[in-house]
Write a structure and sequence with these properties.
The chain is mostly helical and 335 residues long. The chain contains 10 helices and no strands.
């Protein structure tokens, strides 16, 4: 353990993060079972058939709306929430970091910007908790989830939507928009799973997202060091093959979902714009199922992170219950 493992979220935020992840995974499983019902027929059956999968998807959608309202209320009424909102707002340092990183990648800068060095040997208090990349991820997910909720509510009743917009084409546009947003977000979530599940410093899961910062020590060593201690980390023996395998599955899943969304007719691509008239390729079917497998791995990692959190909380509680030890080796309560 190093000071890289400094606390990231409050206790409420860690709970919200886990609930949001569970709800989004449920939306993905049911949404793509509807979208790719031929390739994912087993998932349709597992969620109660054609009517059951739609019902579960709508319930999960209402859950997403409830979680969003709760979080927005928290941001507005609590000092910590307002501080968190301010922390994700982009600033001039983020622009400078992005520009310098581009120059560094092109060979026109000698080093990366300090704001982008969370994993480059700097202490936790010397770099921001969120780099411009992290802030970008937060805003992209927030915008996508908002648009998905709005479009999902609008297409809840297709008949009412057609009546409101007067034309079937206008109503279908919202269905297409909702499906394409889901594909874009699916790619982001897959990459998010790979990024945090296969990171060499945190493999197999980044616990900072699950451990509340009030029980996470800032430094795990007896003595203070000039760096985070990242140079002392040792790679897990299974990291290399696991990271390569997960990366391969992620690429296959993303590409297959993109191709499948073009070849599948009706949803989210209208039949008039579809290429090929439906899924007939065995490799495409396998690829889409691999994409679902990546999501399932993400769900398992999320559950694993919460299990590790509970174990750590119990460990901390047991240590606090133990009586202090006297300096001469005896119990501090002995006379």
């Amino acid at each position: 353990m190093t000071s890289l493992d400094h606390g990231k979220f409050t206790r409420v935020t860690t709970l919200f993060h886990s609930l949001l992840a569970l709800d989004v995974f449920l939306l993905f499983f049911t949404g793509y079972a509807i979208m790719f019902n031929d390739e994912l027929w087993w998932l349709v059956e597992a969620t109660g058939g054609s009517s059951g999968v739609v019902a579960v998807h709508r319930i999960a959608g209402l859950g997403l709306i409830a979680l969003t309202i709760f979080w927005m209320t928290l941001l507005l009424i609590t000092p910590g929430g307002r501080d968190n909102f301010g922390a994700v707002l982009p600033g001039t340092d983020d622009i400078e970091a992005a520009v310098q990183d581009v120059k560094f990648a092109l060979g026109y800068a000698d080093e990366r910007h300090p704001n982008a060095r969370q994993f480059a040997g700097y202490k936790a208090d010397e770099v921001p908790l969120l780099s411009y990349v992290g802030k970008g991820v937060v805003w992209i997910f927030a915008v996508e989830l908002t648009l998905l909720m709005i479009s999902g509510l609008l297409i809840w009743s297709k008949t009412g939507l057609v009546g409101f917009f007067q034309t079937k084409a206008s109503a279908m546009a919202f269905v297409v928009f909702h499906g394409l947003l889901g594909i874009i977000m699916l790619m982001g979530v897959m990459f998010h799973i790979f990024e945090h599940g296969a990171h060499p410093a945190f493999y197999p899961v980044e616990l900072k997202a699950f451990l509340p910062k009030d029980i996470t020590p800032e430094y795990h060593a007896d003595e203070d060091h000039e760096t985070t201690g990242i140079e002392n980390l040792e790679l897990s023996p299974t990291w290399n093959w696991a990271a390569n395998l997960l990366g391969l599955l992620t690429v296959i899943g993303i590409v297959s979902v993109l191709i499948g969304s073009i070849f599948d007719e009706g949803y989210p691509i209208p039949r008039e714009l579809a290429v090929g008239g439906g899924p007939t390729n065995l490799l495409l079917t396998i690829g889409i199922n691999i994409g679902i497998l990546v999501l399932f791995i993400g769900l398992v990692l999320s559950m694993y992170g919460n299990v590790m959190r509970r174990r750590y909380e119990r460990q901390i509680a047991e240590e606090r219950r133990q009586p202090p030890t006297a300096t001469d080796g005896g119990d501090a309560g002995d006379d």
